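Input record (one chain):
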Amino acid sequence: MISNNKLAIFLIIISVFCGTLMLTFLKLAQEEVNVYVAGFFRFLFGFLIIFPYMLKSKFTVFKTN
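The corresponding structure, as predicted from the sequence alone:
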């Protein structure tokens, strides 16, 4: 089993890699399309990644106590 500290370090490294990759693709996309279109697709793909978690948790992340 992986310890919590090692898991946290692994997740941070993955998030930095994904953030850098996203910024690189965004720079490449903005050469071809409008900045608003590039921003729209950036948020759309982010939403598509988060949406399955939202469905699994049955939107409880949006409910307050």
